[in-house]
Write a structure and sequence with these properties.
Elements (H helix, E strand, L loop, with lengths): L4 H63 L6 E6 L3 E2 L2 E8 L6 E6 L4 E6 L6 E3 L2 E2 L2 E7 L8 E6 L1
Parallel strand pairs: 6-9
Antiparallel strand pairs: 1-8, 2-3, 3-4, 3-7, 4-5, 8-9
């Protein structure tokens, strides 16, 4: 006659360990998706705030230019964060539609935010990453007309 009492204890332990592993894995996978979604919403929110700040700076500079009697050059700087929630982001001026707007985007995760502003002066600029912002009223494209140039430092 063989004694099989130890076998049932071992099988019960292995079964419990397997079920616990499956439950923990499921929780980690579900929680990981939640963290990614929360991070994306946070990045979107931060970029929206930064975009509003840049748009406000552009509008304020435009008002200074419009009220100035003979402004030939004006320079406004603003310190922006280098990163949002640990992600690198970029800012660019988009003149392709009927309204000029800012496009803020990050690559990891892929988030894009559009912010419109209303400047009477033409606004130009190249894509730049976060950090120092410079808004300059000058002949940026050397066409003889003064415009607002939005760049990074």
């Amino acid at each position: 006659m063989t004694d099989e009492r130890a076998v049932s204890t071992t099988v019960g332990f292995v079964t419990t360990l397997g079920v616990a592993s499956i439950l923990i894995s499921g929780l980690l996978i579900a929680g990981g998706g939640f963290v990614d979604d929360q991070r994306e919403r946070t990045i979107r929110s931060e970029m929206q705030v930064i975009g509003q700040q840049v748009a406000s700076d552009i509008d304020a500079t435009d008002r200074l230019v419009q009220t100035g009697e003979s402004v030939s050059e004006l320079r406004v700087t603003h310190q922006l964060p280098d990163r949002v929630t640990g992600a690198q982001y970029s800012i660019e001026v988009d003149n392709s539609g009927s309204q000029t707007r800012l496009k803020l985007s990050s690559d990891d995760p892929d988030v894009t935010v559009w912010v419109q502003f209303d400047a009477q002066t033409e606004v130009v600029g190249e894509r730049f990453t976060g950090g120092d912002l410079v808004i300059r009223y000058a002949d940026a494209d050397l066409d003889g007309d003064l415009e607002l140039e939005v760049t990074g430092r």
